[in-house]
Amino acid sequence: MGERIVIQPVSRIEGHAKVTIQLDDNGNVQDTWVNVLELRGFERFCIGRPVEEMPRITTRICGVCPWSHHLASAKACDAVFGVEPPPAGRKLRELCNSIAYTEEHILHFYFLAGADFVLGPGEPYQTRNVLGIAAKVPDVAKRVVRCRWLGAKMLEIVSGKSIHPVAAVPGGFSKPLTKEEVEQLKPMAEEILELAKFTIDFAKKNIFPKYLDVVEKLGVIKTAFMGTVKEDGALDLYDGKIRIMQPDGSYEDFDAENYTDYIAEHVEPWTYLKFPYLKKAGKLSMDLDNPVGVYRVNTLARINVCDYIPTPLAQKELEEFRKNFGRPAQFTLLFHWARLIELLYNAEYVVQLLNDPEITSPETRVPVEPRAARGVGCVEAPRGTLFHDYETDENGILKEVNLLVATCQNNAAINMSVKKAAKDLIKDGKYDEEILNKVEMAIRAYDPCLSCATHEFDGRIAVKIDIVDKNGEKIDTLKNF
Amino acid sequence: MYHNFEKSRIIVFGCGNVLFGDDGFGPELIKYLEKNYRFNNVTFVDAGTSIRDILFNLSLIETENLKKIIVIDIADINRKPGEYIKIDIEEFPKKDIKTFSMHQAPTSSLLHEIKNQKNIDVKLILIQPYEIPEEVAPGISDILKKKIPKISEAVINEIKY
Asked: Do A454 and B54 touch (CB under 8 A)?
């Protein structure tokens, strides 16, 4: 057995992970493992509770995307109670979802992954972060932070709370939006839309062309994709049917409640996190040359599976993207480009919703009665398709709970992309900080949310590499702090 | 919450995941403070696991009234469960703190930045947990529960100071 490189933790992703790279005797990559933490025991904790508590409890799962859990949970409750929210209730949920998306995508592009591109993968770790960006492009940084701030304020106006939201309730939305509030929100939404337009232009002019060679090579794998579309095939982040698209572009649609007919779970002995795969493939193989059953979710998946985007500027960007990269596009780093198209879509959609007179209707919820039922709620979280699956008894008490989260669904693909990146970049035992960061870049493209209860994370210790010999004796340690 | 930031002189953040035992101490303390104390221009915030998101926003916006941030979190500070230390951000990570639960990097560097660039005083109140379960188990331990009044006093002293 050759030496083993351990990278821990992966900096600037949500939660933490340990990347292990196994080298053979010649110093080339033999295998890789991405170990992540999982929110363990949550489903069991929920059983026995009234189902209507779930939209409030689930926001505590994740401090980064509470809105996605909140809305998926509210939708699962709707299904359990057998009700459909009134149009204004649904639109208010969608409004919050899209505002939260703009916040999330801005955060990821500029603060988490963007630093790799804005400053370059070779920049020292100490400065390759949001503060480094602020120093290099201060005007952009200021604008970015202002728009995130505006997004948070908008969520407060619409829902009362931007973190740990409580406004989506079984049957709809608890707080109608007034016309005065809409007028207050409109200029904020326009400002975010301007930033979204600026961002994609900025990236297309200054960033993507510069790193196109990296985009075309780094962590590239060939997989299927999954995302949500409306009945007519349009991109939808809140509701619709689930579409699985194969690498050859063929696809199949299904209702979210039937997800267990399409997705199975594989277990590996070295990680708690399960590996969902396409059930019809019959098995999961993460072989780089011949993967079986592997699919991806998140931005690139959604951009690939939809037939069109129902807002004009984002649709124009989609057309340009497809002209450049085809459908489905497979380059892993294109998740970033797709993320910016989605940013634009959400910013446009927020403006659209605020101009919809129906959104100020006082009819935002319908009453609910407990019953014995199963309900599946599914939304597109920024990181990918999120399923909440509840079953209640006749008193509305939870008997079964299953959550299928986005990062888990990308688990196989993340492992494959890391392996591909490591194999391409580490040769004859030669590696340096930039190479190892590129391995991390392959992970960051998926924007993984690895754990929402991170207990040992000092922001200054971003990456530690232990190199051990075949007997497990440490021969070197590299640190990026 | 964010509306209050703009007029606040002091913001107190209670950090932690309420689903994981003593990790939820910060939010629990905020609940107690909100119930028992009221100050002009002081905002108590249950930051949950969103502290990094909040600090990102706070780091570059205009906050001319803001003079101090107090962050309450659990940490392995090598003390008995329920004991706490109060340190300036400048002292972190110089202190012997083996693990530090700030719930999303790069929180500590953001706090440094807020201190240095905005000239805002940043104090950390770090509490030694009794137990953080591996699986979801909400509710803080009795040992930490009993310490809430005492640690609240420490926060109040820091507000008054």
From this structure: no
Contact A17, A450 (CB under 8 A): yes
Q: Report yes or no: B124 and B92 within 8 Å, Cβ to Cβ.
A: yes
Q: Residue B148's closest CA among B125, B121, B118?
A: B125
Q: Which of B17, B57, B100 sits opposite A453 (nearest CB)?
A: B17
Cα separation of B97 and B126, whole Å?
10
As a whole number of angstroms, the distance between CA A136 and CA A130 comes to 10
How are beta strands B42-48 and B10-15 bridged, if at all? parallel
From A12, A64, A141, residue closest to B105, measured CB to CB: A12
pLDDT digits (tens, 9 = 90+) for A153-201: 999 999 987 778 999 999 999 999 999 999 999 999 999 999 999 999 9
The reported pTM is 0.86
Burial class of residue A283 in the structure, from the number of CB atoms within 10 Å of its CB (0-12 exposed, 13-18 middle, 19+ buried)? exposed
Mean pLDDT of the region A305-323: 98
**Tell me, which fold does domain B5-160 have in CATH?**
Rossmann fold (3.40.50)
For a pLDDT cut of 90, what percent of chain A falls above it? 54
d(CA B56, CA B111): 10
Q: What angle do CA A108, A334, A459 make, to 5 degrees?
A: 30
* Measured CA distances, B18 to A62, A286, B30 (Å): 11, 36, 12
- Where do we find the tokens 């993967």? A291
Nearest to B109 among A39, A131, A149 (CB): A131
Determine the residue among B31, B46, B50 to mutate to test chain A binding: the one whose Cβ has the most chain A Cβ atoms within 10 Å.
B50
The residue written with tokens 């939870």 in the block is A398
- How many residues are recorded in chain A? 481
Contact B135 A453 (CB under 8 A): no
Nearest alpha-carbon partner for B151 in B132, B133, B131, B124: B124
Q: Which of A34, A26, A36 is nearest to A1 (CA)?
A: A26
Q: Are residues A229 and A253 in contact, defined by beta-carbon separation less than 8 angstroms?
A: yes
The pLDDT value recorded for residue B115 is 82
Q: What tens digit of pLDDT does each residue of A238-271 get? A: 999 999 999 999 999 999 999 999 999 888 877 7
| Confidence band of A351 (pLDDT split at 50, 70, 90) | very high
CB-CB contact of A361 with A86 (8 Å): yes
Interchain contact, A456 vs B106, CB within 8 Å: no
Q: Do the strands B10-15 and A4-8 form a parallel or antiparallel pair, or are they unpaired? A: unpaired
β-pair partners for A465: A7, A478
Domain ranges of chain B: 5-160
CB-CB under 8 Å, B61 with A156:
no
Instruction: Give B92-136 pLDDT, tens digit per residue.
Output: 764 444 333 333 344 666 787 788 777 899 999 989 889 888 777
pLDDT at B35: 95
ipTM of the complex: 0.73
Distance from CA of B81 to the nearest CA of A (A): 16
C-alpha to C-alpha distance for A245 and A307, rounded to whole angstroms: 11
Neighbours of A313 (CB within 10 A): 17
Distance CA A212, CA A386 (A): 31
B148 touches chain A (CB under 8 A): no
Place of tokens 């933790």: A9
Q: Residue A262 class from Cβ within 10 Å (0-12 exposed, 13-18 middle, 19+ buried)?
A: middle
B110 to chain A, any CB pair closer than 8 A? The answer is: yes
Which of B3, B60, B136 is opposite residue A145, by nearest beta carbon? B60
CB A342 within 8 A of CB A303: yes
Chain B residues touching A111 at Cβ < 8 A: 56
